[in-house]
Specification:
The chain is an alpha+beta fold. Helices cover about 45% and strands about 25% of the residues.
């Protein structure tokens, strides 16, 4: 069975509390994989790593980040 972990800080890691859930085939409803179940600590870890990795981006206000993302989306749509 396939096991999918979180990808935090460039590494595949299990949930902080070890929680997982099964993913079922939609036709047979039989499990074919197990996925790490993210909790509050996993989210906090991911946000901390992302914030440290991108200090200039983190320093932008939410409106400025939204503007940049919208410009990127506009460029993609234009292509």
């Amino acid at each position: 069975m396939t096991v999918l972990l979180h990808y935090i800080g460039g590494m595949h890691v299990p949930s902080a509390d070890g929680a997982v859930f099964d993913v079922a085939d939609p036709v047979s409803n039989k499990p074919y994989g197990t996925v790490a179940a993210g909790g509050e600590r996993d989210i906090d870890d991911a946000v901390a790593v992302a914030t440290a990795a991108f200090p200039p981006w983190a320093a932008f206000g939410s409106r400025r980040r939204a503007t940049v993302l919208n410009l990127i989306a506009d460029g993609i749509e234009a292509r």
